[in-house]
Design brief:
5-stranded antiparallel beta sheet
């Protein structure tokens, strides 16, 4: 989940059929490709205009519209109590285009089926590139933040337990 600093995430999930990357006010929801993913490596980028393609050629790609009431955003796991990354400064509050890349789900599946107890190599990757929407040009910096949700988070045991049900 990508959320705005200092605000509560939207209480409404995107409608069914919205795809693996969808936005509600101040919140972006991302779904992993593999049900066996344990960690997500997340990279957030802010661009002043639409950037060149940034993900691997074989990655899943989605472009969505998003709006934020505050210019700082961070990533967190769905069950985490708060942001698990540093916050990225977009520039100004407002409307943004967002290109999301997702890859690594196939490797996670391969790892799981070869050894279900291997939890170290079950990381899926996400790259999110933000730029101002053409309907609202904002002064966006070129700040780039790289963040990975920690591998030793306290929620890993909860996820493992839930998967065993």
């Amino acid at each position: 989940m990508i959320e705005v600093r200092g605000t509560e995430p939207s209480p409404h999930l995107p409608p069914a059929g919205s795809g693996w990357a969808a936005a509600t006010s101040n919140t972006i929801i991302l779904q992993s490709a593999s049900e066996w993913t344990i960690r997500a490596a997340v990279r957030l980028e802010a661009w002043p205009a639409e950037p060149a393609r940034g993900g691997p050629p074989d990655s899943d790609t989605s472009t969505i519209d998003a709006s934020f009431d505050h210019p700082e955003i961070g990533a967190r796991g769905f069950s985490a109590p708060g942001s698990e990354t540093d916050f990225l400064h977009l520039g100004n509050p407002g409307h943004y285009q967002l290109r999301v890349y997702r890859w690594g789900g196939d490797q996670v599946d391969t790892t799981f089926y070869a050894n279900p107890h291997d939890t170290i190599h079950r990381t899926e990757n996400f790259l999110l590139q933000f730029w101002p929407s053409t309907t609202a040009r904002n002064d966006v910096g070129s700040t780039v933040e790289t963040a990975t949700i920690p591998g030793d988070d306290v929620h890993a045991a909860i996820r493992d337990w839930a998967r065993g049900l």
